[in-house]
Structures are given as C-alpha cells and as structure tokens.
Amino acid sequence: MDPTNLPQRNTPHWSLYQRECFESGTKDHKLPPFNTHPDELEDLARQRLSSGGWSYASCNAGLGTTHLANRDAFSHYHIIPRMLVDTNQRDTSIELFGKKLSAPICFSPVGINKIYHPEGELPVAKVAGELGLPYTLSTAGSVSIEDAAAYNARGAAEGCAGGKGAQYEDGLRWFQLYLPHQEDLATSLLKRAANSGFEACIMTLDTWQLAWRHLDVALSNYGFYRGIGAEMGLGDPAFLELLKQRGIDKDADAKAVGRTWIDQIWHGKAFSWERIPSVIQEWKELSGGKPFLLKGILSVEDAIRAKEVGCDGIVVSNHAGRQVDGSISSLEALPAIVDAVGSQMEILFDSGVRGGSDVFKALALGAKAVMIGRLWIYGLSIQGEEGVRHVLRSLLAEFDILMNVGGFRTIGEIDRSAIRPSAVIPSANGRL
C-alpha cells in the first residue's frame, strides 16, 4: 500500500508492515528480524532453543498423526477470490463478548514460557496488548497472574498512544483455567484473575494428564519437575498454605514445589459435566458476570452440552495434536459444531493455524475468531518480545493483504461461499 494514498479505516492498515519491511531493508539496510515462513520459523527456533525447550515446543502425542491431520485439513479447502471489489477501506475488526477486536486473532494459552525465554509470558502479554488482540494466560504459566496483567496493560497503553492497534488502554486478556484438585486453590486463582482484569475464563478439558510424547519422555523433559514454572503458585496464598501443610520449603526445594504445583492443577483427576455449572457460577460471581468458555470441544454432542450447562462460548481444539493421537482435526470438527450451536454461543477455533489463509478458512467455516500458539512460541524463542511482535505483525499483514487481493472488505463477508472443498486431501509433508 502507498501510505500517501490510504483511505480512512476503522482498523490499522496491517498491510503496511510489508512496506515497512521492504523500506527498512532498502533504505536503512536493516532486514526484518527473521523469515516468518512457518518452515523457516520452526528451523530457526530449533537452532535457538535448548533440547528440552525444543522438545516441549514441538512434541505431539504419539505418532503425531493429529498434528498432521490439522495441517491436512486446511489443504482440503480452497479460497475463491473475487475481483473488482473496492477493498481499500476493508475492516478486520470483530465484536466478541461485547468487545471490539482489531482482528479475529487471539493468543492461545501456552504454559511454562520460561523454557522458551527468560522473561516467560511477560513479553507475549505486552505485544498482545499493543496490537489489541486478546492474550490468554495459562494456569501453567511461569509468571504471576498479576505480572502478566500489568505487562498486558503496559503494552496496551503503548499501543493506544502509538496507534499500533490497541483498543483498550488496560488491555484485553483472558485466563485459561486448569481446574485444581483443591477448591480453595481454584477459588483463589479465579479471584486473582478477576481482580487483575481478566475478561473471560477458558477452562481446558483435554489435559487431565499429559499425553505420551516420545521425545519429552526420552529426555525426562518436564520443566515443572525440574523446578521451573511454579511462579503462579508461589504467588498464591492457598498454594503456599498447601506447601506448608506438606512440609515443603518453597525456597530450598524448587523441584518439590514444581511437582506439587503442577500435580495440583493438572494431573490425576478428571472432572465430569456435573462439576462445570459450579465453576461457571463461581467465575461469574467473582468476575461480575464475565464470559466462561470450554476449550477442547470436538464433538457436536459436547458442544450442545456446553451450551446447556451455561457456557458463553467454546474453543474447538484438539490441543494442536498434543493430547489425543489419531484424533479428528479441529477444522474437520468445526462446521458441524457451528451448525449445531453457532447461533447460540461464540465459537473460537484453535489448532494448526500457520498463516493468513488458515485464519481465513477457519473464519469461513464459522469460527468467530482464531487462536494461535506455536507461531508466537517460536517467535518468542528466537528473539523475545521483538520476535513475538514480528511474527504477529507479519501474520496480521498477511491476513490483511489476503483480504485485499482476495476481494473481501469485512470479516462478515468471509463465509462458506468464500471457500470450496477440494476433491482430494493432499498428504502432509511432515513439517509445520
């Protein structure tokens, strides 16, 4: 785009990042931080990370067939471009839970970010705030709830001041809940999230136990058991009381602290549908009625049940292929779920997104917004805050340009008429 000939838009001209990259390389002889093609991104992250960091970032369940199915599913659909459409004033914004988002892209919750970068989740939360995109903090995160909120707000304030895309000076953040075994710990975490301005709670359902991930097991690669990633617990009075009861010195035995923390919020106890209404009620009471979602829904029956028990939305997700080997792909599950409950609740999509066309296809099949994880993990691993920013600005520019050259003016125009399924699903190449 020519910046001297830009029409007024309701959302940032994300596509100008392309021009910025070209100009900085030719005028100032400063190339972009790195190549954001997913294959190149993966290779560079592998070079930068420790063996354990790379293993945890890249491992999938079992043989990795669900991971490959996620990528194959996108190849099954093709976009139908439209010509002679005036897309100069296109609008990438959506309304979600009463909030305006600058684009239909959200940060997926990813735990223990300190194995990817010393600052953990903090730079990720900050960049999300800058760009006006929802940031989701995992219960398995390696910083405190309060610090993540503060960095998200800091990024949002800078984004508002600099016109980078932020819509809210305090940021927009969601809290992903792994429901602890102990009710007092669950209450404490939810209260801290509500008090820290988190606008929604997303409870993940598919991780009662880690799947069998061959490389992680071979390396004994589990950060919490190595004493990394319990910061959220160490800032929680209910968890500190538990450590005291068990005689664990929080300053002297980091490995025992890490094991105790993750065992309390993650391992060994599956919950049934009967537990969900009380969790929803508690979050609503603590947060003043803010949205509650379930993540990990892949069947129509579960989607309907989620609506019946009072959820405001769901995330169609197979945990990026990291939990159930041989599972249905998330994209394959999406259309039927949208048809069943899409008019009654908000449906988000997660798993396998690698580029602007993937975002487009998930929206066309009925997702309200798309969540991404591994892309920003790799950016964080490569270059910290600037790496996350470069990856996200590149994805936003790619999506914005796709709308421009494809002939789509608004997100609302991206529906099933904009894509066509192919007759043959190509096989995956084994990479991203």
From TrEMBL:
InterPro entries: Aldolase_TIM (IPR013785), Alpha-hydoxy_acid_DH_FMN (IPR012133), FMN-dep_DH (IPR000262), FMN_HAD (IPR037396). One of its GO terms (molecular function) is oxidoreductase activity. This is Probable L-lactate dehydrogenase. Keywords: Flavoprotein, FMN, Oxidoreductase. Glyoxylate binds at residues 56, 178, 213, 319, 322. Residues 30-424 form the FMN hydroxy acid dehydrogenase domain. The active site is at residue 319.
